[in-house]
Amino acid sequence: MRLTTKGRYAVTAMLDLALHAEDGPVSLADIAERQDISLSYLEQLFARLRKRELVSSTRGPGGGYRLGLEPRRIDVAGVITAVDERLDSTACGGQGNCHGDKRCLTHELWQDLSDSIYDYLSSISLQDLLDKQLAKKKSANKPQDLNLSIATHS
């Protein structure tokens, strides 16, 4: 299974949006600049995210995007599938025709892996990612305790 840039960028952009939600609507140009993602690519992704109501948009001056749901209600798997990314490890796209018109010997193994990946990504909310980023930022701004030891000689 290979997760393409479409899914990775969608999750990254959604996290950026969540991180800057307090500032009001967030422009795609700002996300594009901060995350080094093409603006036109983000526009395509956000059209799909808007269809799934994961984001909402406001037009005009001061407009931009907001999360369509609370971050705790948006899971990573939902973001990835909203942009038409497949979470599938099978060679046959889950169709069961990997060996001609039959299932290959290892079809169930790859299907189980796909299911496990989906379950894992479904268990991670945007809020979980947001909390991790905020904790990282907080610890980076916290002065480190210096452990000074004085050597004594007899």
From TrEMBL:
GO molecular function, one term: DNA-binding transcription factor activity
InterPro entries the UniProt entry points to: TF_HTH_IscR, Tscrpt_reg_Rrf2, WH-like_DNA-bd_sf, WH_DNA-bd_sf
Keyword DNA-binding: yes
Residues annotated as transmembrane: none
Domain of life (superkingdom): Bacteria
DNA-binding keyword on record: yes
Cellular component, GO annotation: cytosol
NCBIfam families (UniProt xref): IscR, rrf2_super
Stated name of the protein: Fe-S cluster assembly transcriptional regulator IscR
Species per Swiss-Prot/TrEMBL record: Thiolapillus brandeum
Gene name of the record: iscR
